[in-house]
Write a structure and sequence with these properties.
The protein has 416 residues and is an alpha/beta fold. 45% of the residues lie in helices and 17% in strands. It folds into two domains: 163 residues, 3-Layer(aba) Sandwich (Rossmann fold), CATH 3.40.50.10860; 148 residues, 3-Layer(aba) Sandwich (Rossmann fold), CATH 3.40.50. It contains 14 helices and twelve strands. Strand 7 and strand 8 form a beta hairpin. The longest helix has 26 residues. The structure holds glutamic acid.
Length: 416
């Protein structure tokens, strides 16, 4: 059976499976699967050559039953409303699975930042921020970095928001530079959270991290830092890739050389001491831990039967499709689902927002300690649900998350 190509349908099918386990009534399912708000904006931007280009942008809030909407903003040519809805709902489940007091949101602009200058990106970002201003705010909807956006993007959004409301408002975005109320440890938080989750998964699967062979798809900030943290634990990073292809060395790659090569040439391919490998081949390498840290829909019903790893740590949102989940669980492969595996980013975003609202800033050690506590607690809670109800980790994470959102919805009651 061919899988749906709609990301939203994929997330929806996971929600349905959890709602079945929880025996949720039909009307509650209706409420929880609808988007709270969806905004589509057009963004006319002056390009460096003097011409005007109009970009499409979105901001979607899926659910705000447990707190303000929270979620990143991505810049990518493949951004669609369907994708925004899917990613906004993933944020709802991610925040609920880790029990942080947010709902889910997502935003994006259809553009190719690789072809744009810094000045064009700044004008695009400021126009986008001003168009979605009616939806965002520290107590309404808090944005953050996602694919192709970073702390500088967040600084422009914070400035545009602040200039419009007439006073400086730190808590409207997270993932800001530390000089502007950003949190220490935010940049590497997603990778660090992923690393804590991998360590817990290794305990379950009786794998010693220090003997593990690791393959990582995606050498952006999450892939790079996860590779580094696992390498420091003694794991062998046997393969890495970026959008231009990958490199493999079964004896272990020289991570420092890979970073230097990437920095110098802008790509991993051509790394001395390693063989070339495609992104598809990397996913099928025999290893202990596979970390898809690039984009969505990488492990699918089509290639999952060829995946040869004990643990999949889903660092990228929606990297594993529902069809792949089934095939992986038949092979006894332990999947740490995205809504747990990559929750470190939003957890430290939460810490950043708390610090901004209090005007009291934490040390990096405090941030990392609190992140570790929440990641380990969440992993254990979800693993317990999985054991008790005999479910895969993904479904257990959804059961935990959907249960929390439905409890909040029920006790709030229906307005009016
Ligand atoms: N974009 C990240 C995610 O998908 C982080 C979101 C946030 O920090 O709000 O989880």
């Amino acid at each position: 059976m061919k899988e749906t190509s709609s990301l939203f349908e994929m997330v929806r099918s996971r929600f349905d499976a959890a709602a079945d386990v929880l025996r949720l009534p039909r009307d509650l399912r209706e409420v929880m699967t609808h988007m709270k708000r969806q905004l589509i904006v057009s963004l006319p931007v002056r390009m460096d050559d003097g011409s005007i280009r109009v970009f499409d942008g979105y901001r979607v809030q899926h659910n705000i039953a447990r707190g303000p909407a929270k979620g990143g903003i991505r810049y990518h040519p493949n951004v669609t409303l369907d994708q925004m809805k899917a990613l906004a709902s993933l944020m709802t489940w991610k925040c609920a699975a880790t029990n942080i007091p947010y709902g889910g949101g997502k935003g994006g602009v259809v553009c190719d930042p690789a072809t744009m200058s810094q000045a064009e990106l700044e004008r695009l970002t400021r126009r986008y921020a001003s168009e979605i201003l009616l939806m965002i705010g520290p107590d309404r909807d808090i944005a953050a970095p996602d694919v192709n956006t970073d702390s500088q993007t967040m600084a422009w959004i914070m400035d545009t928001y602040s200039m419009t409301v007439g006073h400086s408002m730190l808590g409207v975005v997270t993932g800001k530079p530390v000089a502007l109320g950003g949190s220490r440890g935010r940049e590497e938080a997603t990778a660090r959270g992923c690393w804590y989750a991998i360590r817990e998964a290794c305990k379950v699967k009786n794998i010693h991290v220090k003997d593990a062979r690791v393959a990582i798809q995606g050498f952006g900030s999450v892939g790079t830092t996860t590779a580094w943290l696992l390498h420091e634990d003694g794991a062998k990073i046997i393969a890495l890739s970026d959008s231009g292809g990958g490199v493999v060395n079964l004896k272990g790659l020289d991570l420092e050389a890979a970073l230097a090569h990437k920095q110098m040439t802008g790509r991993l391919s051509g790394l001395p001491g390693a063989d070339a490998i495609s992104n598809e081949e990397l996913l099928e390498l025999k290893c202990d831990i596979l970390v898809p840290a690039a984009i969505e829909s990488q492990i699918t019903a089509e290639n999952a039967s060829r995946v040869r790893t004990s643990i999949v740590a889903e660092a990228a949102n929606a990297a594993v499709t529902p069809g792949a989940d089934e095939a992986l669980s038949r092979k006894d492969c332990f999947v740490v689902p995205d809504i747990l595996c990559n929750a470190g980013g939003v957890i430290v975003s939460y810490f950043e927002w708390v610090q901004d609202l209090q005007g009291l800033f934490w040390s990096e050690a405090e941030v990392n300690n609190q992140l570790e506590k929440i990641m380990i607690r969440s992993f254990k809670e979800i693993y317990e649900v999985a054991q008790k109800r005999k479910l895969a980790m993904r479904l257990a994470a959804y059961v935990q998350a959907v249960g929390r959102v439905s409890d909040a919805t029920n006790v709030r009651g229906l307005f009016p």
